[in-house]
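Fold it.
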Amino acid sequence: MSIDVNCLDLILEEFKEKIFYIQSSSHFIKGILREASENSRTQYEKEKTWKVGIHSSDTHTMTCKDIFNGGITKIESKEFSIDEYSQIYEEIRNKQYQWLLVGAYEAYENYLKKLYSYIGFIDHDFWQAKDFGSISLNEIKNNDLSWFVNRLEKDRIKNTNDISKQIYKKMPILKKILAIRKRDDPRKIDYEFMIQLITQLRHIIVHNNGTTDKSEFIKELLKEIGRNNNKSEDQNYIDIVNWYFGIKKMNNTVCLTEVHDPHGKFMHCDRLNDLVEVIASYAILMHDIAKMHLESKTNKD
């Protein structure tokens, strides 16, 4: 069967559209919440200058219906200072950023399933025999692309990790390219590790409200990805994981808001954007390697 380059490219373009929307959303959220925080502080400073009743704090009260007694009951009332409001803005922004990362990863997950479906449609040998289920070779040849997509999306025969392992096995050049890029890149990005880190961060956000025992998390992550054999390299990976968590009371919380760049006095690091770019770069590499593999396969046939 001949490769349809347009179909392969459309799978990537659909992913690009989603990932761009997610990155753009982070900038909008940052702007909106920053403006709200600055407006609150500006109002406070004005009232301070006017020397009138200064509202350096604000009181919020929550009530709800008391179904049993048929009236209204108060849940709680609290006075928030201007600094507490600023902290709340940051916490809201971090929570929004966490879910944008979830969206970015799930866009990648959906992309990978479609890519794997298309590769299997063109190259039946790429899939494992059990992926096809109990059908004959002739039936496989007669199935259209939608059947392969349904096997992954509806029958759930493979999760993202299973797909990645099969891709690494069938396209060994992928690991070679990643090793070369890591060697030559000034930032020494280990994309395989970073994707696994993002996978696990997404799990924490979805299933545990963005918090975990970080020490145990690091230990399990290094063990799973096979990066726990060299003490010097281990510390580098530990530092990378720590970068995406908070400090002090937020030590066990996934934190993705911008932070000061330790290497530049007036520079900031966009942690969410860094992770989203890793996902995008990795997805594009998958596309390029898949295209090369399928073109080689169809030329042989």
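The beta strands are 57-66, 71-81, 259-260, 268-269.
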